[in-house]
Design brief:
Layout (H helix, E strand, L loop, with lengths): L1 E4 L4 E4 L7 E6 L10 H19 L3 E8 L15 H9 L3 H18 L7 E4 L4 H13 L3 E4 L2 E4 L17 H4 L12 E6 L16 E3 L1 H13 L3 E7 L3 H16 L4 E7 L2 E3 L14 H6 L4 H9 L7 E3 L1 H19 L9 H12 L4 H13 L4 H15 L9 H4 L2 H15 L3 H13 L2 E5 L5 E5 L1
Parallel strand pairs: 3-4, 3-10, 4-5, 10-11, 12-13
Antiparallel strand pairs: 1-2, 6-7, 7-8, 8-9, 14-15
Helix pairs in contact: 2-3, 4-6, 6-7, 9-10, 11-12, 12-13, 15-16
Bound molecules: adenosine monophosphate and zinc ion.
Length: 453
Amino acid sequence: MKIYNTLSRKIEEFKPINPPNIGMYSCGPTVYDYQHIGHMRRYVGDDILVRVLKFNNFDVKHVMNITDVGHLTSDEDTGEDKMEKGAAQYKLSVWDLAKKFEKQFTDSMNVLNIVPPKKLIRATETIEDQIELIKILEEKGFTYTITDGVYFDTSKFKKYGAFGLSEIKEGARVEKNPEKKNPRDFALWKFSGETKRQMEWDSPWGKGFPGWHIECSAMSMKNLGPTFDIHTGGIDHIAIHHTNEIAQSEAASGKPFVKYWVHHAFLLVDGQKMSKSLGNFYTVDDIKKNGFDPLALRYLYLQTHYRQEMNFTWDSLKAAENAFEKLKNDIQNLEEPKVGCAEFEQKFLDAVNNDLNMPEALAVVWDLIRSDYPSSAKAESLKKFDEVLGLNLFEKTSTKAVIPDEILKLVEEREELRRKKRFHLADQMRNKIKKMGYDLHDIEDGKTEIEKI
Ligand code: AMP
Ligand code: ZN
C-alpha cells in the first residue's frame, strides 16, 4: 500500500511501526457551528483511509478529538474565541453549543456511513492530560510565561518547522503579541485574565484554558503512544497546527511523533469558498432537504482524489446521484454472490492502494459491471469493494432516506387527516405536496407511498 506523506512530500510505501496494528489520529471538528459538506468531505476521506487499511488486513485504532474548548483557533494572537462567539450567536451556553454541534457532526457521520472512530474524545475531558504535558515541557525548559499565557519557545526546539512551511503565515502573525520571544512561538496555556469566560480551569500557572495544539498532542500520545503511524487533517493544518503539534510532542517525548501525515484538500461550492454570507453554505441536512440521498454525496466525494481540490455544484451532485442509482439498480439485478473476479479484485486493490485513488477504484467498479464475467462473480467482488466504498450498494433504496423531512412530516399530517376522515383537507394537503414535487399513492392500512415527480 502506498500513501502520500506530507513530511517527505512523496508517495511512500506504507510500512507500519507495529503491524498489523495501526495507530491513527484525526484532528476532529471544533463544535462551534454546523459542520458543512466541506468538513464532511474530509471525514469521508479519513473514513476511506481507515477502510482501505482494514481491507489490507490491518487492525486500525482510530482516535479523533472533538474540540469543544474555546481555544483561540488558528490565530491565537487575535484573542478571538470561536466557541464563546458561537454561544452568543446561538444564544446557548458554551457547553450546550458544544453538545448541539457535536450531535450534528456525529449525525452527519452516520448518514454518510462513516465508520465511527474507536475513540472520539472531547478536549474538555482531557484538560488534566494537557496540563501534564505542559508540565513536562516546562520541566524540560521549552516554555516561558508572559502576561497572557504560557508559551512554547520554538527557538529551543532545533527541528522546528517539520514540513518546511512554518514561515508561510509568520508574516501575518508578527507584532500581534510583542511579548512573545519569537513570532512563531505559540500558547500552551492561556490565562483568563479579566475576561469573563464560561470555560476555564485551574492550572499550576493560573486560571485559564489550553492552547489549541496541545489538545491533539495530549490526546493522541495518551491513546496511541509517543510514536504512531498516521495523523490526518486538512491541508490548512500543515503550516501551524501540525507543525506545532510535532514540535511540542517531540520536545516532550524526545521521540519521533508521527510516521505518515495525511492531508486532505478543500471543497469549494460553485468555485467559491463556502460561507454563510454567500448563501453557499450547505450541511448534509441541506443535501437531504433537497431530496438527495447523502450517500450520493459520498459517491460524489469519491469521484475526486483526496489531494485535489473539489468543486461542488448541485448539477454535479445530480449527476453523481444518477450514477449511484444506476449502480445500485444494476447490482440489484445480479445473482447471488459466488466466487469473485480475481482480475478486477486485483485492479481495485491496486487503485485503492495507490494513494487512495478512489476515482480509479470507481472506474474499476464500472468496468466490472460492464464486463462479461458471470453475474454472481460480479456480485461477490462488488460486495468486497463496498467494504471500502461504504456506499451500501446492496441495500435496497429506502424512500425514507431520500424524501426530505419536510415532506415526510406533511405526509404524516395527511395520514392523520385521513384517519380522522377529513378527506377534503387531506386532498388539499396532497395537492400542496404535489406542488413541492412529490406524488402520493394511498396503499393499504392508511399508509402512503411517496414518489418523487
Ligand atoms: P473551521 O471550523 O470551519 O475552521 O474548519 C475546521 C477544519 O475543517 C479546517 O481546519 C479544515 O481542515 C476543514 N475544512 C474547513 N472548511 C473546509 C472545506 N471547505 N473543505 C474541506 N475542509 C474544510
Ligand atoms: Zn489537531
